[in-house]
């Protein structure tokens, strides 16, 4: 492989994936707009035409942002690599820190993250304070937005910088098998995050209050007993501080598992419907979806690190992506920047696997609660979250981790 041939391959894949993403987003918006005038028959009794049209308009508005994000992201990848920004940053930090050292590598990689955040910031602000606000979902104030950004920066510094330093040290110190050591460290770190996230990280951003005693708590505890699920607590999260969207989830690992309800969800659903939604979430646990996803992540991460190890020994990998420096940090930066360009085609496989898990969790829920309660809950969530009922099928295959509304409801009613 020559430098120029790899550059051409990279540019081809970047252009092809960018064009395809834009085509998909445009196709999706047109499909949704085409079906805007009529509520699908299966939802006509539960969702009004005005709510259906709001969901269509919301989807189209988000599609506009999505297309802008695709273009900006592609340009940023090109600027970082063949545009020479990565090489420039590497040289700039070399003026103050020893090239190839841990401090130099951490500073270099951290600066890429900061610049990427700045590039994403305008769209994030527009999405939150214009699009989400326009459709009545945003509850976040500028002060809270800034506070969240500051907290995220602190977490990135306190947790992310030491992790980067550890990864770079392992890559430099562990010889030809460094990728096995980094893999073991990375998997251990992810398991640790699963343990500490519910009790240490999540409370930095939201307030979690124990679910009050009463019929709702008794109903949920009875369901947990039937399902043989033990958790460290039932909590209500103040999701309404930031958004009108509602949800429920369980988080944590081992003895740190906790069940969390958005306060917006409790306001919108009846007790039997909340029970059915929780049964669906418990289905993910009982079907071992979290464990399966961790196992897949372990396999994929190991494979990616092995590939990176091979690429680090290929001069064309560095030069073909616009870098003259061949340090460990540069290799890691180039790999993480270029990887999504070459793996985008795998998106439908991951989405299909995720939708399969959703069907399995639905089946678990209807075996333990009334299926009509789950159907009613989902319909309300589609309506209140302005989720389109008529996504473009091809777009959905690439991006949707959950089955389209019509297919999901049809399968539930046929169960």
Describe the 3D structure.
By secondary structure, the protein is mainly α. The protein is 71% helix and 4% strand. A four-stranded mixed sheet has the order 1-2-4-3. A hairpin with a 6-residue loop joins strand 3 and strand 4. The longest helix has 33 residues, at 102-134. The termini are far apart.
Proportion of residues in β-strands = under 5%
Reading the helices and strands in chain order gives HHHHHHEHEEEHHHHHHHHH
Main sheet characteristics = 4 strands, mixed
Low-pLDDT stretches are: none
Distance between the termini: 54 Å
Shape: globular
SS-derived structural category: mainly alpha
Helix share of residues? over 70%
Radius of gyration from the alpha-carbon trace, in angstroms: 23 Å
Mean pLDDT value: 92
How many DSSP helices? Answer: 16
- β-strand number: 4
Q: Give, in spatial order, the strands making up the sheet with the most strands.
A: 1-2-4-3
Salient structural properties:
single chain; 415 residues; mainly alpha; four-stranded mixed sheet; 4 strands; globular
Draw up the topology in text:
Elements: H1 3-34, H2 49-80, H3 85-94, H4 102-134, H5 142-173, H6 178-201, E1 208-210, H7 215-227, E2 234-237, E3 248-251, E4 258-262, H8 263-268, H9 271-286, H10 289-311, H11 315-320, H12 328-343, H13 347-366, H14 371-384, H15 393-399, H16 405-414
Parallel strand pairs: 2-4
Antiparallel strand pairs: 1-2, 3-4
Helix pairs in contact: 1-2, 1-15, 2-4, 3-4, 4-5, 4-12, 5-6, 6-10, 7-9, 9-13, 9-14, 13-15, 14-16
């Amino acid at each position: 492989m020559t430098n120029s041939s790899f550059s051409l391959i990279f540019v081809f894949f970047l252009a092809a994936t960018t064009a395809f993403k834009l085509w998909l987003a445009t196709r999706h918006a047109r499909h949704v707009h085409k079906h805007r005038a009529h509520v699908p028959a299966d939802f006509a009794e539960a969702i009004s035409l005005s709510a259906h049209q709001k969901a269509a308009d919301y989807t189209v508005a988000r599609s506009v942002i999505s297309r802008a994000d695709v273009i900006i992201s592609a340009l940023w990848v090109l600027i970082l690599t063949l545009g020479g920004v990565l090489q420039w940053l590497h040289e700039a930090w070399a003026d103050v820190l020893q090239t190839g050292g841990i401090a130099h590598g951490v500073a270099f990689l951290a600066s890429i993250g900061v610049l990427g955040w700045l590039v994403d910031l305008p769209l994030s602000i527009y999405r939150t304070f214009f699009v989400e606000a326009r459709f009545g979902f945003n509850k976040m104030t500028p002060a809270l937005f800034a506070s969240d950004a500051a907290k995220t920066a602190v977490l990135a510094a306190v947790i992310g910088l030491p992790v980067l330093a550890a990864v770079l040290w392992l890559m430099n110190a562990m010889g030809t098998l460094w990728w096995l050591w980094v893999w073991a460290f990375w998997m251990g770190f992810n398991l640790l995050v699963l343990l500490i996230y519910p009790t240490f990280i999540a409370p930095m951003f939201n307030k979690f209050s124990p679910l009050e005693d009463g019929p709702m708590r008794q109903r949920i505890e009875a369901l947990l007993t039937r399902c043989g699920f033990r958790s460290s607590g039932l909590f209500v999260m103040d999701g309404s501080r930031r958004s009108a969207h509602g949800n429920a989830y369980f988080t944590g690992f081992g003895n740190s598992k906790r069940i969390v309800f958005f306060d917006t969800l409790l306001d919108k659903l009846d007790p039997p419907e909340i029970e059915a939604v929780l049964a669906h979430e418990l289905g993910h646990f009982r079907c071992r979806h979290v464990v399966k996803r961790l196992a897949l992540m372990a396999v994929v991460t190991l494979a990616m690190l092995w590939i990176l190890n091979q690429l680090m020994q290929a001069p064309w990998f560095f030069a073909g992506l616009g870098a003259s420096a061949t340090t460990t940090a540069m290799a890691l930066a180039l790999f993480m920047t270029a990887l999504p360009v070459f793996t985008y085609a795998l998106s439908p496989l991951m989405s299909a696997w995720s939708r399969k898990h959703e069907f399995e969790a639905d089946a678990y829920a209807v075996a333990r609660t009334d299926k009509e309660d789950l159907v009613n809950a989902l319909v309300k969530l589609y309506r209140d979250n302005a989720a389109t009922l008529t996504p473009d099928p091809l777009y959905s295959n690439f991006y949707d981790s959950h089955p389209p509304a019509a297919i999901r409801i049809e399968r539930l009613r046929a169960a």
